[in-house]
């Protein structure tokens, strides 16, 4: 079992927190350590990624802006659902052909 200096552990945890798109596995590979080791360091530091990581900070909105944002979100959800159903229909249509 390898012993890593505390500064290395702290730097590894800080690197994980600073890269929102990266996974523990990717960062561990970059550092040459086991992913479980990094995961344990993150847990020990109590340093998961902050809430809302990668999201824009909310700004105060008027009721109209809030309603518009909710409508746009719902439209995105419906478009995703429609695309999933379209792909499923295409998949099943292809399966029924002999």
What is the total tally of β strands? 0
Report the C-alpha radius of gyration, rounded.
Answer: 22 Å
Q: Helical amount among residues, as a percent range? A: 55-70%
- Taken together, the total number of domains comes to 2
What is the fourth-level CATH superfamily of the largest domain? Homeodomain-like
Q: Indicate the CATH topology of the largest domain.
A: Arc Repressor Mutant, subunit A
Name of the CATH class of the largest domain = Mainly Alpha
Structural class: mainly alpha
Low-confidence runs of at least 5 consecutive residues: 51-55
List the helices and strands and how they pair.
Elements: H1 6-18, H2 24-31, H3 35-45, H4 63-96
Describe the structure.
This protein has 98 residues and is mainly α. The chain folds into two domains: 6-45, Homeodomain-like (Arc Repressor Mutant, subunit A), CATH 1.10.10; 61-98. It has four helices and no strands. The chain has helices at 6-18, 24-31, 35-45, 63-96. The longest helix is centred in the C-terminal third of the chain and has 34 residues, at 63-96. The radius of gyration is 22 Å and the shape is flat. The model is unreliable at 51-55 (pLDDT under 50).
Task: State the main characteristics.
98 residues; 4 helices; 0% strand
In short:
With 98 residues, the protein is mostly helical.
């Amino acid at each position: 079992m390898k012993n890593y200096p505390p500064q290395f552990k702290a730097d590894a945890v800080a690197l994980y927190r600073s890269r929102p798109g990266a996974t523990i596995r990717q960062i561990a590979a970059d550092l040459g350590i086991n992913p479980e080791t990094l995961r344990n360091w993150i847990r020990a530091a109590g340093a998961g990624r902050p809430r809302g990581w990668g999201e824009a900070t909310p700004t105060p909105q008027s009721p109209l802006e809030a309603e518009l944002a909710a409508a746009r979100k719902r439209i995105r959800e419906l478009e995703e659902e429609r695309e999933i159903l379209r792909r499923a229909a295409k998949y099943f249509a292809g399966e029924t052909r002999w």
